[in-house]
Amino acid sequence: MVSHRGALFSAHLAAILFGLTGIFGALIHADAAVITWGRAAFAVAALAAFALVQRRPLLRGLNARQGGVLLATGLLLAAHWVTFFIAVKVGGVAVATLGFASFPAFIALLDILVFRERIGTAEALLLTLVTFGLVLVTPSFDLGDRGTAGLLWGVASGLSFALLAMANRRGTRGVDAIQVAFWQNLVVSIVMAPFALGRLHTLDHASWIYLALLGVFCTGLAQTLFVRSLAGLSARSAGMIIALEPVYAIACAWWLFGQQPSKRMLAGAALIMLAIVLAARGKAPPPDPVPPEPLKTA
Question: What is the spatial distance between Cα 206 and Cα 128, in angstroms, rounded to a whole number?
Fold first, then answer.
């Protein structure tokens, strides 16, 4: 049994590790395809080792339908990571992370458009806050501006993550979170291999180390810590802590790279963060207990 204090520590450490994703993406001297492949490959190795130590079978209980879902969600995860790392390379860590943080608005919008759910006051407020936040974060409205292009790639990362989250929520329920993470990362590593393996020789020693840290700690360990935190926290509480990821990412980018956000960017970030917190607080938990849904973040 995980204590409340231990669960809080696990959730905050997971948020910090998830927030470091963009930092490592900026430090690695490679394009988005190579970074995505490396992250997934190292994560697969870490998750397989964890499953072996914990004696968690990675195939038991999976059927053909679930296998198809894991394949589809693995492709979405690949799209999410590729667009996010392009955003980091083009626009910087802060802009990429804030663009990705638009995902709660996309989830609300997809619920309305795809599942015909009626828009309520909370959803309307969420969409409004994120929209105004992104307007403030946008460096300029010139598509030739690198900051604006990076933000658009970050928003694309948020959209692909929203699709991934919805697919996970509806398609992987009842599947062990470590199983989901392992097979999705395996799909990513296989799909990205043709685009990455031919360019691995360009990686220097430092980039290999950063790739390993990204895959093992910011993916495998962070996922495990998040799942562990759910043993002592509600999904809503853990989700609100994980929502601090952009804060940690922006703070680290400011400290390491001198990417000081402007007052306008900080105001936009505050609106987006407020929207994330409201989204985490606004949804009631499901009536029946279900296994914790795996979380994939930037």
Answer: 42
Mean residue pLDDT across the chain = 82
**Residue 6: predicted pLDDT:** 83
Answer for the pair 102, 272: CB distance below 8 angstroms, yes or no.
yes
Alpha-carbon distances of 254 from 102, 188, 244, rounded to whole Å:
21, 30, 16
Any residues with CB less than 8 A from the CB of 174 and at least 6 apart, and which?
290, 291
| Residue pointed to by tokens 């403030």 | 136
What's the length of the chain? 298
Apex 217 CA angle, 211 and 222, nearest 5: 135
Q: Are 260 and 254 in contact (CB under 8 A)?
A: yes
Q: For tokens 């994980």, what's the residue? A: 242
Query: What ranges do the domains of the chain cover?
Result: 4-282
Three-state SS for 61?
coil
Residue 260: other Cβ atoms inside 10 A: 12
First to last CA, the chain: 29
What residue type is assigned to position 37 of the chain?
A: W
d(CA 62, CA 232): 27
Report the alpha-carbon distance of residue 62 to residue 41 in Å, rounded. Answer: 22
* Strands (E) located in the chain: none
What backbone phi and psi angles, to 5 degrees, belong to 185? -65, -35
pLDDT tens digits, 105-130: 787 788 777 767 676 776 677 778 87
